[in-house]
Amino acid sequence: MFPPHNFPFPRLSIHGAVTWPLTSVCRHIHTLILFTYTDYKTIFIPIAVFAAVAAPVHSLGHLLSGLLWIWLHLLQCNVSNQYKTPEEDIVSRPWRPIPSGRISQTDAFSLRVFLIPVCLGLSWFHGWGVFFTSATLTATMIVYDEVGFAAHWAGKNMCNVFGYLTFEIGATKIMGQSPRLDATAMQALVCSAGVISTTIQAQDFADVVGDRQIGRVTFPIYAPSFSRIFTLIALVTWSIFLSTHWSLGLWGKTCFCFLGTLIGLRYYNLRKSEQDSQSYVLFNAWLFMAHLLPSQARWDVLSF
Question: For the chain, which residues score pLDDT lower than 50?
Answer without folding.
Answer: 1-18
